[in-house]
Amino acid sequence: MRRSTAAAIGTLTGAALIVGVRLSVSAPVVPSAAPPVVDLANSGQDADPEPAASATKKPSSKNPTTAPAEENTDDEADASGEAGGSGLKNGIFKGSAAKNPYGAIQVSIKISGGKITAADATYPVTGDSATINPPAIASLKQGTLKAQSADVDAVSGATFTSESYVKSLQAAIDQATA
Amino acid sequence: MHHAEHVMGTVVSIDLADNLPEDELRAMIDDVCGWLHEVDRRFSTYREDSEVSRLRRREINPADCSTDMRHVLEACADLWRETDGYFDAYAAGPLDPSGYVKGWSVEIASARLAEAGSVNHCVNAGGDIRARGLSGTGAPWRVGIRHPWEADKLSWVLTVSDRAVATSGTYERGDHVFNPRTGGPARGLRSVTVVGPDLALADAYATAALAMGEPGIAWLAKLAADGYDSALVTDDGRAFSSAGLPAAV
Predict the structure, then answer these.
(1) Cα(B106)–Cα(B62) distance, rounded to whole angstroms?
(2) Are strands A154-156 and B141-146 parallel, antiparallel or unpaired?
(3) A50 and A114: one domain?
(4) Given CB atoms, is A39 within the 8 Å cutoff of chain B?
(5) Is the pLDDT of residue A16 over 90?
(6) Which pTM was predicted?
(7) CB B190 within 8 A of CB B234
(8) Beta-strand pair B121-125/B128-132
(9) Is B12 in CB contact (< 8 Å) with chain A?
(10) Does B219 reach chain A within 8 Å, measured CB to CB?
(11) pLDDT tens profile B77-91
(12) B2-241 maps to CATH 3.10.520.10
C-alpha cells in the first residue's frame, strides 16, 4: 500500500516536474521568438563549419562574392586587400544595421575593380514591418495639399449619396452642361 | 450629350462627346441606364429579391448563380488576397460586394458605349469615373479630385484618356470604411484616389488603402508598377502622389 502510494506520488511529482519544466522552458522562448531565429540558424551552421567553409571558398579565394559576405567589415577589409585605381578595396562591405521603428535596415555594397558593382539593402521580412519597409524605398512623393478651383469635366470624390450629390461640385457641372 | 441618372443609391453622370446623331447618342445613354438599373436590381443588398439577397439567404448556391455574380464573387476573393484582406466583401458580416460592383458596372457601361460607337465619353458614378478618348473640347478629360475638407475645392486636377479614377474617403459618410484587422474605423488617411486602366480594381484598391491607414501609402506605391497611380491625403493634411499621376499643369 505505502509503496503503491509512494509510486503514485512519485509519478505525479514526475509528471508535475515535466510539465513544470516544459512550461519554464517554453515560456521564455516565446517573447524573444523572432530575433533568435537567425542566431539559431547561424549556430547550426557553426556546429558544422568545415564543409560550409570549404564549399563557399571552393571557387577561388580571390573571388570576393561568396565567402566574405557573411563576415564583418573589418575582417573583409583585411581579407581582400586589392586596391583599385579609386582606392576602394574589392569585396563586399556591410554598413552597420540602422534601427528604425519598423526594424533594422542594413546596406551592403560590392566592390570589384575599384568600383561599386552592386548595392543592396536588407529589411525586416516578418510582421507589419514587411508590409511597410520594402515599398517605402520607392514610395509616393509628398507635396503640398492644394485647394483650387478649376474648370473640370468631372469630380472624383468619396461615394456620395443622392442627397449629398445635390450639394456636390458634380451636380453643379451636370446642371451647367444639361 | 450629358445625362444624370439616379441609380444604385447615387447619381451617375454620363457625358458623351462623340460627334454622332442625337438619337444614336440618346439610344446609347438609354442602354447604359438600363444596364445600371439591371445591376441595381440584381446586386443591391437593399432589395429582398436581388441575387445578392437570395445568395445571402442561401436560397441559391454560388455555383447556381449568374455568370456575372460568379465573376463578382471571384473578383472579390482575388482582391481579398491581393489586398492582404483589407478589401473584404464580408467586412460587415454577410456578403456585400457593393465595393466591387459599382466600379465593375461602370467599367462594363463604358465598354458597352465603346462597342456601340462612343469612343469619347466620361461616366461618373458617385465620384468613380471611367473616361475614354477626348472631351468635347478635343483635349483629354479634366477630372478634379475633391478636396477632403473643402467640398467646393479640388486638391488635384488630372487629365485622363482611357483611364479610370476612383476615390475613397472618410469625409463623406463618416466612419463607413473599417480596418478588418482592428475591427475599428479606418484611421490615418482622409482620402485616397487611384488612377488606372480598370475602374473596378481602382475603386477596390482605393478602399483597401483607406482601410490600411498610413501603411497604405507604401502599399499604393507598389501598384504603380501595374499601371495604377495614386494620390492621397492623410488625416493631418499631408498630400502624397505617385510619380506617374497624370496631374494637369
Answers:
(1) 23
(2) parallel
(3) yes
(4) no
(5) no
(6) 0.67
(7) yes
(8) antiparallel
(9) no
(10) yes
(11) 999 999 999 999 998
(12) yes
